[in-house]
Amino acid sequence: MQIQLPDEFLSTEKGQTANNILRRCVHCGFCNATCPTYQLQNDELDSPRGRIYLIKQLLEGQTDGDIAREHLDRCLTCRSCETTCPSGVEYNRLLDIGRERVESLGKRPLSERLLRWLLLQSVPFPKRFAVGASMARRVPFLLPKVLRKAIPPRAAAVDQWPAARHARRVLLLDGCVQSVAAPEINLATARVLDNLDMSAIQIPDGGCCGALNQHLSSAESAAVFMRRNIDTWWPYLEGSDRVEAIVSTASACGLQVKDYAHYLRLDKQYAEKAAKISGLVKDVSELLAAEPVADVISVVGSQARIAFHAPCTLQHGQRLTGVVESILTQCEFELVTVKDGHLCCGAAGTYSIFQPVLSEQLQANKLATLQAGSPTAIASANIGCLLHLRQDAVVPVKHWIELLADCLTS
Ligand code: SF4
Ligand code: SF4
Fold first, then answer.
1. Ligand 1 neighbours by CB, cut-off 6 Å
2. 306 phi and psi angles, rounded to 5 deg
């Protein structure tokens, strides 16, 4: 493929990045076989290879911004294509650059801009999100169907957090949506860690990792969240009682924090700190993989048959394939076989709101494969997937760490 990016763009860091990524792609099309949107649409422009070509044309100034936007919007950012690609094409980085260019080429329709604004002003702020969700639950009939489906149910009351009594300490990220919709997940984590002689430290007024803003192509506001988090977390990384890791129970948030080093690489004031933070963050499964979890768990038969849905952000983004499954198996949960485990469930951040038709198809397909083996419960590792699958699942859908907490021996 001939690539002729304009010299002005090529002289920038982004231009160089785009050029390098584009040159790696050999157009073999292996990635198309594992792309959820290509499977549903059967349109080359809704495949990774097609989107890479679209972005190339976009950056060369050869294509209409509206056409590119339509097909880039349909991309789930699931990164299944990256896992499949034999050439190591960093599709996600190229997509970020393509989306940024699309946004600069023209305004979206007013209704879409309003919805994006509403989400950016509410979801990343736990207090605002809690108030908004509570109001929405009272008058769901006033909301469009896509938002009605997305309202999280009222969260269950949570028990007391274990006292910070251990020498081993980790910082446990609260997140925005999860802290409102499912605070029981982090409480379960704190209890499991407490049984393993580790204390989970909560941060007062924790907040969004910046992923939502990043996914809605609002890179500047995402960077504001990232810098704020670095300032908030930094004191916990210093001193004699510093934490050994920053732990996330939402794989999308964990992936975003692992990417702080990349997003803030050109920020003279924060680049170094961002790199340290990215090196310290772990998905809770990474932390527990090295711990004797099975020693503190006793599974009873009726709880044991589980279908695990690996979020895209865990398996394709963080490349933590099989880690949760291994922990659950060691703890003697029975894992049912799930077909097409590499495919996205359709949650994908705000995808279910902006692409409801494709999202619902993916959700239905995913639930069919998860429930085919008659599990007693579905487990996952990301709040977005959990809330999305819960909407229509016929068995309980839980975070896998809750399964462990339910079976603690003390
Ligand atoms: S992204 Fe990778 S798998 Fe897809 S066409 Fe390019 S080289 Fe092939
Ligand atoms: S990120 Fe997912 S939806 Fe987007 S092109 Fe890659 S495989 Fe397809």
1. 25-31, 48-49, 52, 81, 84-85, 87, 89
2. -120, 140
